[in-house]
């Protein structure tokens, strides 16, 4: 049963990674009349809603059961992609991101809790690495398909994405529960979970990981396309760069090997330094090869860091209300992400150089915070 859960979760990761419009996500929105700052504003609203919903969703997931939560969220995820397929205004894209915020808050902690409990805490770093790598594998497959589509096939790419998310919903239905519903929680159980979630010197880990993850997210999903465009790259070249970045996103599978060689702390420092250097190069680069190489470095570092962070967050927890505790942690991380998103979006509207320089500074701050964290 537990192996079946891991298989289904990996299939979901692969299918939900197949965002066929991702190579031109920013250009897709701009073609519908949405500005770069409006894109960052939509993202910030989405993140703020995630913050507001994290704790209620975590509490509900522990009461409702993790399987039911996954099924519900995967269903809403599918609906959000249908909305994106038909979106043609700021309001439509905002609606899509609101739905996405509900989904992300619901999945936050639940997916990793299912994986962690399904493997019973054994070999969990490898499981998290494979799970994250399969999301990247989905991106690779989607990018390859997009490269074969006629130029400007934005709507078709969005429709294909909705189809992939429909299949992910079917796999969610195949999950088995790893924790039974609890309609009558013990008094103070959530408060105890929240205290554990933020105790033990975990805050520097959460803040540092959030800064680095959001810098990589904004730089590799939104700002990179503007940089490519400024360097004179066309749709086919952008698609090829996207596929290459997605392939390097599979590097997350090598997180255990990197941790064995450098130690968990050393591996995190390596990822942060890579992020810092790549942002610095993007700030001054004017050639397409340099820009692409830097984006590839960012994608690699973020893919290596994500499993390390997920595994450490779970390893530090010993509460039965795991989803609640992870949601509290995610809420803290999203607060940092909102600020980073708005700052980079506002600067990116005026100057890509300034935006990437800020990304380098934030990466340095993330590195410092990771060095401050206490060992688990």
List the helices and strands and how they pair.
Elements: H1 2-16, H2 25-31, H3 36-64, H4 66-86, H5 90-107, H6 110-118, H7 124-148, H8 154-173, H9 189-198, H10 203-230, H11 235-249, H12 255-284, H13 288-315, H14 322-350, H15 352-372
Helix pairs in contact: 1-6, 1-7, 1-8, 3-4, 3-5, 3-14, 4-5, 4-6, 4-8, 7-11, 7-13, 9-14, 10-12, 10-13, 10-14, 10-15, 11-13, 12-13, 12-15, 14-15
Q: What does this protein look like?
A:
The chain is built from 15 helices and no strands. The protein is mainly alpha-helical and about 375 residues long. The longest helix is centred in the last third of the chain and has 30 residues. The mean pLDDT is about 85.
Which tags fit this structure?
single chain, 376 residues, mainly alpha, 15 helices, 81% helix, 0% strand
Concise synopsis of the structure shown:
With 376 residues, the chain is mainly alpha-helical. It has 15 helices and no strands.
Q: How many beta-strand runs?
A: 0
Proportion of helical residues: over 70%
**SSE string:** HHHHHHHHHHHHHHH
N-C termini distance: 30 Å
Secondary-structure-based class equals mainly alpha
Oligomer: single chain
* Rounded Rg: 19 Å
Average pLDDT: 86
Total DSSP helices: 15
- What best-fitting shape do the alpha-carbon axes yield? globular
Report the biggest beta sheet as strand number plus sense, adding barrel if it closes.
none
Range of strand content: under 5%
Could you list the spans in which at least 5 consecutive residues all have pLDDT below 50?
none
């Amino acid at each position: 049963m537990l192996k079946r859960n891991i298989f289904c979760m990996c299939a979901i990761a692969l299918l939900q990674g197949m965002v066929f419009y991702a190579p031109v996500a920013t250009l897709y929105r701009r073609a519908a009349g949405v500005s770069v700052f409006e894109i960052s504003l939509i993202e910030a609203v989405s993140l703020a809603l995630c913050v507001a919903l994290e704790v209620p969703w975590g509490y509900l997931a522990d009461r409702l059961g993790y399987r039911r939560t996954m099924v519900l969220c995967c269903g809403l995820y599918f609906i959000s992609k249908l909305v994106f397929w038909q979106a043609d205004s700021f309001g439509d894209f905002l609606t899509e991101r609101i739905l996405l915020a509900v989904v992300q808050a619901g999945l936050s902690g639940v997916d990793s809790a299912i994986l962690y409990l399904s493997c019973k805490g054994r070999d969990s770093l490898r499981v998290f690495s494979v799970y994250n790598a399969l999301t990247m594998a989905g991106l690779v497959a989607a990018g390859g398909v997009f490269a074969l589509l006629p130029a400007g096939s934005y709507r078709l790419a969005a429709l294909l994405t909705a189809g992939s998310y429909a299949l992910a919903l079917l796999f969610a239905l195949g999950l088995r529960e790893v924790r039974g519903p609890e309609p009558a929680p013990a008094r103070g159980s959530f408060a105890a979970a929240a205290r554990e979630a933020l105790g033990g010197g975990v805050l520097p880990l959460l803040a540092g990981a959030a800064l680095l993850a959001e810098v990589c997210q904004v730089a590799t999903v939104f700002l990179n396309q503007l940089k490519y465009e400024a360097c004179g790259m066309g749709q086919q070249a952008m698609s090829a760069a996207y596929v290459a970045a997605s392939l390097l996103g599979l590097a997350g599978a090598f997180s255990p090997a990197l941790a064995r060689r450098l130690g968990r702390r050393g591996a995190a420092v390596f990822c942060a330094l890579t992020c810092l250097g790549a942002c610095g190069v993007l700030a001054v680069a004017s050639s397409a090869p340099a820009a692409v190489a830097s984006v590839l470095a960012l994608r690699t570092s973020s893919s290596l860091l994500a499993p390390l962070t997920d595994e450490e967050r779970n390893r530090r927890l010993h509460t039965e209300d795991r989803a609640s505790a992870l949601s509290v942690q995610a809420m803290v991380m999203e607060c940092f992400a909102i600020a980073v998103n708005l700052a980079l979006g506002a600067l990116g509207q005026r100057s890509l150089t300034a935006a990437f320089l800020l990304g380098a500074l934030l990466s340095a701050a993330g590195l410092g915070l990771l060095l401050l964290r206490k060992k688990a």
